[in-house]
Amino acid sequence: MHLNRVIATIAAAGLAATSLVACGGESAEPATPGSTDANGQTTIKIGTTEADQQAWSVFHDLAAEQGINLEIVPFSDYAPVNEALAQGELDVNKFQHIKYLAEYNASSGKDLRIVGSTEIVPLALFWKGHTSLDGIEGQEVAVPNDPSNQGRAINVLVQAGLVKLTDGVADPLTPTPADVDKKASKVTIVPVDASQTPAAYNEGRPAIINNTWLDRAGIEPDLAIFEDDPNSPEAEPYINVFAARAGDIDNETLNKLVEIWHDPKVIEANEQDSKGTSVEVTRDKAELNDILTKLEKK
Questions:
Q1: How far is the C-alpha of 207 from the C-alpha of 210, rounded, in Å?
Q2: Which segments of the protein form a coiled coil according to its record (predicted)?
């Protein structure tokens, strides 16, 4: 099935997406994922903000070959996707990293858990007209100010040797500007809205820009002068995952979807979508949920 046929499928599902979470506490007890029809097809409803990417077209077709009718429900914003899952409007979702999921659980009191890992996208530093860190000392570096990206952005600068944190930082995985030792650092951090980081870059200032805004601003990822190590402990909170309700994470069909996402054909398409920046991650489910629990406590 080509991408336009998948879009036709998700467009129909999109009608339902606009009404998700509208009923609040009136929703019934969520059903077990994976109803099977008379033809032996198992239907799974999955929510994402990335339905238009080529990897999802490949994923859809491979799932169909495994007897799984994947009903892709597209969302234009992150906020409703977890709530739709918690209320039983979805069987599973894939759009977020572990830290975002932890923040949702902690703020909502819900208990969504991880079915499996997918990939991680390094976060990078860009400086227009420069190909290295040479000459960056004394510069003001724009970093995104949202909770999901700010701590990681600061750690990019720590790994680059440009910033030092003060002694006794409460949470070195997600530091804040208050944790930066300004006298010992080589650059000054300037938090801005994530959407403004490309503007800082185009004005000639160094900036840490995530992939969403790189793509929208037409900035090529290979222009980065430094990026974080996706295999470092500091990067663990930013592993992207499949999430489901706690009672469903061992569901056979949902776990099959994780396997399918790691099929070489999906990985290749994901590489194309991310312009080579995506790094495949295969981590044990129990280990991933331990990371989630630790982040929730923090």
A1: 10
A2: none
Judged against a pLDDT cut of 50, whether residue 16 lies above it is answered with no
Average pLDDT, the chain: 89
Residues 6+ apart with CB under 8 A from 206: 125, 126, 127, 130, 136, 139, 140, 141, 142, 187, 200, 225
Mean pLDDT within 102-116: 96
What is the rounded distance in angstroms from the CA atom of residue 57 to the CA atom of residue 101?
Answer: 25
Half-sphere exposure of 30 (CA within 13 A, CB side): 22
**Pairing mode, strands 226-227 and 188-192:** unpaired
pTM for the model: 0.81
**What domains sit in the chain, N to C, each tagged with a CATH number?**
3-120+239-297 (3.40.190.10), 124-228 (3.40.190.10)
The pLDDT assigned to 203 comes to: 97
By C-alpha distance, which of 188, 196, 202, 190 is closest to 129? 202
Q: Can you tell me the mean pLDDT for 20-41?
A: 60
